[in-house]
Each structure stands twice: as structure tokens, then as C-alpha cells.
Amino acid sequence: MDGLVKLSQAYFDSAYGFRVSQAPIEHATLEISISATDPKGTTHQTTVLVSTVSESDLASWATADGGSDSTPCEARLKLIRIDQIHDEIPNISKAAFRSLTNAMGVHPAALYMVCRKYDGFHTYKGPGSSHTWFFGSSTHAILWCYSPSRRQTVGVFMERIQANFQDFCRVLSAFSENIHAPQVLFLSSAIHQQHNFDVGTASELGVIQRIEQQTGFGPSAVKGYALIKSEPTAKMVRAEIDELTVWSQAVGEIGVNCSNRGRNHRTFWRMLAALRQDQEDSETLGLPQGPAMERYKASLRELCDVLPTVERQLETYDEYILYLKDRTERLSSVLFTLLTHVDARAGIGLASAAKRDSSSMKTVAIMTMAFLPATFFAALFAMPLLEWDGSHMVQKGFWVYLACTIPVTLLVFALWLGIIERRWILGGTGSPKGFKHE
């Protein structure tokens, strides 16, 4: 493990995927705290605070025990948002990020996951570091640690694409009573991501339905259309190649998104399985015997009580995403067929145009043949070899004309036949005897 830690630290030190500018900026944060019961027996209170922290104060913010006041806490959860700039680069300097992760006690091996923009669910525990978890998806990644001595969870929410920190905070706040267990981020991440998937799937389903209506294929096809019809619908005939290409691209993108969501769903299952396993195990993340450990176990039980409902939702979505993926694949095949049909129609049009050109050339040839005898005799009669007013109309040297014209004409026809035969030999389907193709 030491070798892996050294490699991860070395890679992080040489990584360039962070903001180059050293000017500190403000980062949005979420802080949830549960105040301890006072000696008078006052009921504890949960506080949710949304604020911003300067980049230069991140390390002190991560290690501070107090929030907006100095009230003792039974548990505290802090989460900071790091957005991204161009080329998916985190909008934070490397020095500030390293200072923050050192203050959090992040296991160094987890830094490799951040730099390489890994997906999946990973957990790390080793001497000299806090218990560390990493969750990565196509939209965002979360890196968080738990300090049993402070009973405090500190995490970093790193945006990738289409992430919604506010929505994640809303989901996490719904489980604010369970922040005694850092595994609350397991369940919150899965639910938040599933909400995003539901929104995206609903939008993509609308795209598929519109394309099905236009093509006449699928559950949303035009009413009354049957596949056994020998003629396509009017809409299919009017669809041009550019429009079909756009539809094909949209369907292909939806198919890729379905595969990506299936991949992320497998991560959800592993994360929820880890949550159930943590409840069954005797490990308590280093918490001492007493009220803190009991609250940790109680929070785990409450989180696991939600698992059956969440898992049924995930199972339903898994089945639907497989159906939607199969639907897009079949629709993609239909679009390919329609593209082939449109291309064939374009080929037929070109063939018709070529036929018309051939007919025009034939007309020109016929007209040439009609005028050629008259042209020939006009030229012949105009030659000085003929004496129309003399006693002998054909002069004695007329044979020179015939002696030159006939051989040259025969030579031209011979050359033409030779060229035609050579093209037939090299380009024909058959080969003369003795000619071998490589």
C-alpha cells in the first residue's frame, strides 16, 4: 500500500489538471450540524447553513469544529463545491486543493482518482489518514472523509458536466438527521443522480417519440401504419437525407446515454451494498463506545430502512433503460434503412438524369448522321480535284485523295477498336487466357 500511496502522491504533484491562476476565489459550501443536548435537557436542533468560503481559508474551514456559532455539536457535515472551467479543469489551484485535502485527512491514493477523473465507488483506509470515500459519475465526483474525534464529515463536490450542487444539497438536507453516519452521502448521491437520470430520460423519450411519429415505426408511430404495408408513409417519403442524419445522430446519442446510465447504476448498486454491509459489520469507524457510537448505528439503521424503496426504484429504472436502449437500437436500424432508401432514390434520380443525357447524345448523333452525307458531298464537290466545266470531271490526281483517306480511316477505326478491346480486357469480369489477376 505504501508504494501505491507514493505513486499517487507523485502523480498528483506532477498533475496539471488544476487552475493555473493563483488568485483565490469564493466557493459555495453547505454545512449541516446537529447541536448537542444541553444539561437542561433541551432537544437538539439541526441547522443547515449555505454560505461561501474563500479559497485561502479552505484548510481552516475544513478543520474548524464550530460553524456560525460555538454551540457544541453531536455531528457535523461540511461540503464544498468546486466548479470547473474550460476543458473540465477544476476551478481551484493545486496548492489550495492539496491544502484542503491534507486538512481533511484524505487518503493519498484517492488523489489519483481525482486527477484521472475516475468514475465508480472507492473506499480507502490507512494509517495517518481518515476513512476516505470517493464517488465519481459522468456529472460530478464527491470526495469525503470522516473524523471520529470531531464526529465531523468533510467532503468536496467536484462538478464535471450538468451537475447541480443545489439539488444535491436539497437531497442531502432531507437526510440531515442522519449525518451521524458519513454513509449518508452514499444514499444521497444515488438518489440525487437518479433524479438527474429521470429528468434526462424523460427529455430523451420525447425525442424518440417524435422521431417514431415521423418515421412511422415504434410505439409512438402514426396511427394506422402497419409494417406489412408495401409502401412507406408520406412522412417517410418526404424525409430528406439531412433530416434523417440529424435523427440518426440524436438516436445514437440517446443510446450512448443509456449505456452510460447503466454503467453508473452499477456503481449505485455497489455503493448501496456497501451501506448495507457497513450496518452489518461491527466496525464503527473508530468511534468510542458511548452515545456517539449509538447515534452512528441508529443513523445507519435509518438509512438502511430506506434502501428497499430506493433499490426497487433502481430495479425499475434498470429494466426501463434496457427497454429504451433496445428501442433506440431498433429505431437506429430503421433510420439507416430510410437513409439507404433516400440514397437509392437519389441514385435513381442520377440514373434517370444519365439516361436523359444518353438520349440527348443519341439525338445529337442521329442529327449528325442526318447531316453527315450532305456535309460530305458538299465538301467533296467543292474540292479542286473535280472540274465541272471540263471534258473530264474527275482529274487524274483524284486517286491520291482516295489513297490517303481510305488507309487513314481504316487506321482510326483500328485504333478505336484496339482501345475498346483493351478496356474490356482490363476492366471486364472475365480474363483472357493466360491473363492472371493478382
From TrEMBL:
The keyword Membrane applies. The chain crosses the membrane at residues 364-386, 398-419. Keywords: Membrane, Transmembrane, Transmembrane helix. This is Uncharacterized protein.
